[in-house]
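The passage that follows is intended for readers who have already worked through the single-chain material. We present the inputs for a multi-component assembly, then the predicted structure in tokenized form, and finally a short commentary. You are encouraged to pause after the input and sketch how you expect the pieces to fit together before reading on.
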Amino acid sequence: MNWSDTIAGLIGIAMSVAVGIGTLSFPILPSDHAGPAIFPRTVSVGMFICCLLLIRSARKPKGEKAAPAAEEAAAQPTTARLVNLENGAIRLCLAMSVTLLYPVLITLLGFSVVTLLMSFFLVLIMARGRIWASIGTALTLTAIAWFVFGYLLEASLPKGFLF
Amino acid sequence: MPEVLNAIAVIFQPMNLLLITCGMALGIVFGAVPGLTATLAIALLVPFTFNMDPVPALVLLISIFNGGMYGSSITAITIRTPGAPASAVTVLDGYELAKQGKAGLAIGISCIAGTIGGLMSAAIMIFLSPPLARAALAFSAPEYFAVGVFGLTAVLAVSGQNLVKGILAALFGLLISTIGLDPVFPFPRFTMGVDGLTAGIRFLPAVIGVFAVAEAFRLIEQKEVAKKTDLNIGRVLPTWTELRCTLKETFRGGIIGTLIGILPGAGGTIAAYVSYAESKRASKNPEKYGTGCLEGVASPESANNALTGGAMIPMLTLGIPGDSVTAVLLAALMVQGLQPGPLLFRDHRDVIYPIFAALILSNLVMLVMGLLVIKPVSLIANVPPKVLVPVIAVFGLVGGFAESGDVNDIYLAVVFGIIGYLMEKYGFPVAPLVLALILGPMIEYSFRQSLILSAGDWTTFFTRPISLGLLLAGVGIAAALVYRQRKKPLEC
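Having made your guess, compare it with the prediction:
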């Protein structure tokens, strides 16, 4: 059983059902023979069928047809795989949190401060313990980004409410 | 003729020459660094083109496209790590040559073959595009619907080994494309009351998210370190005898690459594999292939560079992107206020002819630059992820909203970055999602317009010869692709 495909299939089914139900509230127009609902509804039906196929194929035993990535992972020693996965997952979660905070904070603190902070944390995540190198890289990158977007391209970069 | 002369004059302006050189250098670097691609380079650079005129903007992006195709062969030859999948087949003979101390010669042949292939495809594009665009001027809604459906067959080709996942990714893209105001009747669909979604999902932040931000996440998780290059390049320029013995394979690769490029979704990987296989089949000494023969480098490299011109034919004339690179190029055209399709040839010849000229000139620049930058580019391929990640993330996120100045676009880029990362992690290809995002609105609008014009007669799609022909061609190509993938899955 391939759990990731099964879960993806179930999410897809939930999404297609939600879309199908959502289209029921769309208006029907006499002049528009197809109407605003037909395209998303057709796509959601196709999605529903594909998700069922995905779940069906995911139920095949692993030994029968394993994905190359899964085969590769299975070949690794268990402890090493767990450690690598954990480290990678933690780095990824931190990075996703930092990038998700970027648009939240940019309107508050402004482009320069938030870009500096994001670059700093991203470099720090990749090269743990090297704080001065991270600060240097972040400062350089923020300066380049401001010069390119703010000065050369004259993009309106948020200044922030606090400044 | 005046337009051609004007195009030559425009392209030789110092700024455009500088942009070609910069674009080529960037493309080569992005192509050479394993994990980075020409698509990523173009996605990151599109925001830089907002304030440019259309011609310089496209000149820059086309040069990146060309440079990226060549750059990926450098690391394929030197460290057996193709910068992009299209150069995977170059490893077979290129790396064998490198082991014999002939890495420079292999890269030199790759550059020359790529240039010849690129020039051939540019010539074919110049002669084929205008008549195709003229024919497309006669298209109405049913034909555009058929063109869109035909373009969607690309999904099957870019789906890799799992068709169901590829189709699901495309359907997801089609669903996302319906968010926002209905194209016929101004009724908001799936906006969930969020004002920012009323105008629909903006394509550029979505593309930047899927390609750039997702790539940053992938690098963060894997923390990959490229193999260090210990170079013994040797001589770069081939002798006349060496060049002559590869010319036939180069020309064959050029034609194969261009023709495959025209097909929706076929891509550089398929072009290179087909060209290599055909070259080996036609050779008097097929046993030489795989042992370090120059023909084995020339043939796939010519084909994957020839793809550039071929892939741009349907993109420019019909507005259908064949793969993810042309999808991003198409987005760049739209950012410039230009709608790719037959009207582009009628109304914007001042843009089209310089594009043709840029494709030719960028190939010539590639010949010179490609031979000069081999060693530095091979070293750049060792750039550590701790430097790449923040650069990609910052330029991706800021670039995503620089055009509109709307912070919502950063949210979009981050959300699509997470979606793109998760899709790739669990084996869902992202290229179908991008193609569907572009083609979705066109398919839906032309479909509904067709039914309005025909008073609800569904046979309108099958009674018009061009529409019927395109639909049948789409079904035929889809069936052939499904059959081929079921029979012998390609390693994409």
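Commentary: Chain B touches chain A through 59 residues (CB under 8 Å). The longest strand of chain B covers residues 180-181. How closely did your sketch match?
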